[in-house]
Amino acid sequence: MSYDPNNIFAKILRGELPSDTVFEDDEVLAFRDINPQAPIHVLVIPKGEYLSLDDFTRDAPADVVGRFFQKAGEIARQLGVDGDGYRAIANIGSHGGQEVPHFHLHICGGDWLGRMIARE
Ligand code: 5GP
Question: DSSP 3-state assignment of 42?
């Protein structure tokens, strides 16, 4: 599967669709999920064209991968969820339940999130 430049997050990155941005720099954008699953639900995405955590960690330079996760941690602290804790989720492919084919890390917090995996 190759990267689809018309996916929703690519459109958000190009400014063709709006987003409720909480952080942005030259490499990373973070914005609130349109359908939040927790009181705080933010998506952190790299600006580079990666389908999922799989090709991101395989193809992106190690410093880019490192900075991405450092920034994700900073964003969680900025959101104030670090104290009570939160969940960081990367869904990958069909078994992972990934819907948008641009790598994103969900940061969910603000309440007890229940056990980790529900198989519906
Ligand atoms: P996935 O299932 O791919 O891991 O998660 C995709 C997430 O993107 C879902 O939580 C969904 O609510 C969110 N989402 C889908 N479309 C949009 C959109 O247009 N704007 C925002 N902010 N979030 C979206």
Answer: strand
Q: Is 33 in the pocket of ligand 1 (CB under 6 A)?
A: yes
Question: Does the Cβ of 57 fall within 6 Å of ligand 1?
Answer: no
Cβ of 34 below 6 Å from ligand 1: yes
Q: Among the atoms of ligand 1, which is closest to the Cα of residue 90?
A: 4
Q: What is the pTM of this model?
A: 0.97
- Residue 2 located in a structural domain: no
Helix, strand, or coil here: 10? Answer: helix
**Total of domains in the chain:** 1
Domain that holds residue 41: 8-109
What is the C-alpha to C-alpha distance for residues 86 and 72, in angstroms, rounded to an integer?
Answer: 12
CA atoms of 110 and 4, how far apart (whole Å): 33
Instruction: Tell how far the Cα of 58 is from the centroid of ligand 1, in angstroms.
Output: 23
Whether 65 contacts 25, CB under 8 Å: no
Which residues, given as ranges, of the chain have pLDDT below 50? Answer: none
Which residues have a catalytic role annotated? Answer: 104
List the CATH number of the domain containing 41.
3.30.428.10
